[in-house]
Design brief:
- With about 200 residues, this protein is of the alpha/beta class.
- The protein is built from six helices and six strands; from the N terminus they run βαβαββαβαβαα.
- Helix 1 packs across helix 5.
- The chain has one domain (about 1-195): Rossmann fold (3-Layer(aba) Sandwich), CATH 3.40.50.
- It has helices at about 15-30, 55-70, 90-100, 120-130, 165-185, 190-195; strands at about 1-5, 35-40, 75-85, 85-90, 110-115, 140-145.
- Strands 1, 2, 3, 4, 5 and 6 form a six-stranded mixed beta sheet that branches.
- The structure holds flavin mononucleotide.
- The site of flavin mononucleotide (FMN) has 16 residues, from helix 1 and strand 3.
């Protein structure tokens, strides 16, 4: 089984990427046989979707294929999404425009929303309402919100991190692994030729 953890921040040394690394360790603790792919959309310089592909040849000719095949071979996804201006980060939407060849088709996804303050709810509702139609990502019913994210550091949390958060993260990661396992057979039913876009 392979899980891709995708950081959709627009910032260098982002909290999203830091959290992505912590989540990877959490999953390894649960099952050390799982393979990973880590995509940091900032560090990997994933451009915004555009029809003017000549502007970034290196990405559109080469890099996109490499990332796409990593995503294709994944069985489940964790999307770490920061709240920017009360919205999901633009990269969290851009992800589904750029990689729209079935990479996410009917595969489970866990949304992990982060905020440096008390936000974090909007990216969840935004992604749940508008990212799945053509990507067909299957968001699992659990999600995580890490508020006061700078204080989140397992084993050494700041005062503003509730003590139940780690066990909820463990629970949600466990569920994602099981959804990834149990949804695998559904790939045999996929008909992207006739139904690549949702209604
Ligand atoms: C452009 C911008 C807008 C932001 N807007 C919000 C917001 O609406 N709500 C919130 O809780 N935090 C907001 N923040 C704070 C982010 O939650 C915080 O900086 C977080 O660390 C960003 O994640 P990142 O480091 O992965 O980019 C904003 C940050 C930036 C850079």
């Amino acid at each position: 089984m392979k899980i891709s953890i995708i950081s959709t921040s627009h910032r260098k040394n982002s909290e999203s990427f830091r959290i992505a690394r912590i989540l990877k360790k959490e999953i390894v603790k649960i099952n050390n046989k799982i393979d990973f792919y880590n995509l940091d959309m900032f560090e990997n310089k994933v451009p915004f979707w555009t029809s003017e592909r000549s502007e970034d040849n290196k990405f559109w000719d080469k890099e996109i294929k490499k990332i796409s095949s990593e995503l294709f071979s994944s069985d489940g996804f964790i999307i770490v999404v920061p709240e920017y201006g009360g919205m999901a980060s633009p990269n969290s939407k851009n992800l589904f425009l750029i990689f729209n060849n079935g990479e996410f088709f009917h595969k489970p996804g866990l949304i992990v929303s982060i905020s440096s303050g008390n936000g974090g709810a909007y990216p969840i509702s935004e992604l749940r309402s508008s990212s799945y139609k053509n990507s067909h990502i299957t968001w699992i019913p659990e999600n995580i919100i890490i508020r006061n994210v700078q204080q989140y550091s397992p084993g050494n949390h700041g005062d503003l991190i509730p003590n139940w958060l780690d066990s909820r993260i463990n629970y949600s990661c466990n569920l994602l692994i099981k959804y990834s396992e149990y949804l695998m057979p559904i790939q045999k039913l996929i008909n992207r030729k006739d139904f690549s876009n949702g209604m």
